[in-house]
Amino acid sequence: MSVEKFENEKWQNKEQGINFRLEAALNMVAKGPAYVERSFAGPTAALPPYRVLDLGCGDGIFLELLKEKGIVGEGLDISKVAIEKAKNKGLSVEQFDFDSGNLPFADNFFEVAVLLDVLEHLYQPQNILREASRVAREVVLAVPNFNSLPARLQALIGRVPENNSPKKGHIYWFNFKILQKMLEDNGFKIVEMKTNTIFSQRPLFKNIFKFLAKVFPNAFALSFVVRAKKYE
């Protein structure tokens, strides 16, 4: 099965909801220097649009959140089904195969390129990161942690970890060190990171596991959301 067909079938009956990754990414996008500058300048200031590119935009839920903040967003996705859903919402999106070559935008056209749950679905994720560094000044991305404690325990008892199951379509496995190195190899340095953990909804354990995920991200983080900017 091709990646496009896999994604089309996934989006046939799927609707995105607000989750940890979307909320964390939205917060990071709003911390960009250019966005902060516009916030202080006021609505009548003669500043160019704050543009964000959503790579792997799906049905456009993140673009809708950006729109609510007055951010000009454009999206690309390999799934024709997802793109049709996003276009029906009046969003600026186009179908695009991330393995096909260069992104159809000029250098530094965007302030931020967003890749939420995209890199783990690509055979060569470094290629799209390289293109993101060309068209945007910063990236905000999210990937699952394939070395998380639950994954290790599932493997220990003879089960296939959830992130490794065929229904996920994951073909490139990340942990924090792999993510950090890939970003550095493509000219980015991490300036902010957020993680979610097990027991995040239980007040008694939440802060303990949050601290453990900060100290030992490869073991205790379930996923990583990072903001990275290009080296100057």
Keywords for this entry:
seven-stranded mixed beta sheet, alpha/beta, Rossmann fold, globular
What is the strand and helix layout of this fold?
Layout: H1 3-12, H2 20-29, H3 33-41, E1 51-55, H4 61-68, E2 72-77, H5 80-87, E3 93-95, E4 110-116, H6 125-135, E5 136-144, H7 149-156, H8 176-185, E6 188-196, H9 203-215, H10 217-220, E7 223-230
Parallel strand pairs: 1-2, 1-4, 2-3, 4-5
Antiparallel strand pairs: 5-7, 6-7
Summarize the structure.
The chain has 232 residues and is an alpha/beta fold.
Number of helices: 10
What form results from the Cα inertia axes? globular
The CATH class name reads Alpha Beta
Q: Please state the average pLDDT score.
A: 88
Order of helices and strands: HHHEHEHEEHEHHEHHE
Number of domains: 1
Total number of beta strands: 7
- The largest beta-sheet arranges its strands as 3-2-1-4-5-7-6
Instruction: Give the full name of the CATH homologous superfamily.
Output: Vaccinia Virus protein VP39
Termini separation comes to: 42 Å
Percent of residues in β-strands: 15-25%
Any low-confidence stretches, pLDDT <50, length ≥5?
A: none
Largest sheet: 7 strands, mixed
State the share of residues found in helices, binned by percent.
25-40%
Tell me the Rg in angstroms.
Answer: 18 Å
Could you say what the CATH architecture is? 3-Layer(aba) Sandwich
Class derived from helix and strand content: alpha/beta
CATH fold category name: Rossmann fold
